[in-house]
Amino acid sequence: MDMFDELYKYQPIATKIVQNAYRQKRVAHAFAISGAEETQLHLFANWFMAVFSCENNDDGFPCGECVHCKQILKDEYIGTYIIEPDGATIKKEQIVDMQKQFTTYGLTQGARFYVINQAHTMTISAANSLLKFLEEPTSNVYALLVTKSPDMMPITIQSRVQQLQLNIMGRELIIKKLVNDGHSERLATIAYELGYEELNEEAAAQLASLTEAALIYLGNIDVAQINPLVAQMDLEAQVKNKSQADNFFTILLILLNDILDVKSGKKETTLFGIDDIEKKNTIKTIAEKMDTIITAQKYLHANVSSNLALSLISLRWNAQKEGE
Ligand SMILES: [Zn+2]
């Protein structure tokens, strides 16, 4: 699916508002874009710029293919100036630098944009500088204030910009979108739970291999009846660092939760094809397993090494088995 098609599908209202303004040539000079997840906000800001810069714009629909569209999608468009927080905040100097660029720079014929990401992190003096700039709009220059928390911007700024409130995508839509992008439902579910809104090839491959390792680990213990301490030895080769261990633990929790959904009658079979593990466990043994994982994850966050945290799970699960 074309990246912009995704927006027409998931953000039908906000895209129409912009297209209508474009067609009537009555476009505001400053917008606050908010309401959705980070990647969706970013895509929308890019789409907005493409509407005004595309070489083959078809009545408010940018082509996504021309030089300008491509540069915009890569965040490399010459007519765009991007401001991000410097540390925790956006500082006055950053706004002043941007203003200088916009008053001296006149190489581009077409529309120019400044995008302020995480606009709610502007300091008061940054906001005051911006306010002066907003009060003297230049034709063909557009301000895009991108923020998850528009209410945290000063009221004076809020009242100067047009709000474009996007739809929050939420679990179901993001998983659907990831599946549309060509990932399996299993991988899409794992990715969503780990906080991904989109997956590049490298991340997809890594999550797939961690998921495989988690499935084997669970299967070894409950179906193949391999001692958890032995099963762990295989694991250490695949879970190489802390962030992988953290993801591995969360994936184990997702798998166990899949089993709980079957046990509690929410669905008939597991999404991850682990019905044999489901049958070997009771709600109590699953709860104990989850409890151990959560403890191990806490240790990991408290700077215990990933191997030690993995050992904790193996040791406790072994003790649980012996206690059965
Ligand atoms: Zn284009």
UniProtKB/TrEMBL annotation:
Q: Which Pfam families match?
A: DNA_pol3_delta2 (PF13177)
Superkingdom, natural source: Bacteria
GO biological process: one example: DNA-templated DNA replication
Name used for this protein in its record: DNA-directed DNA polymerase
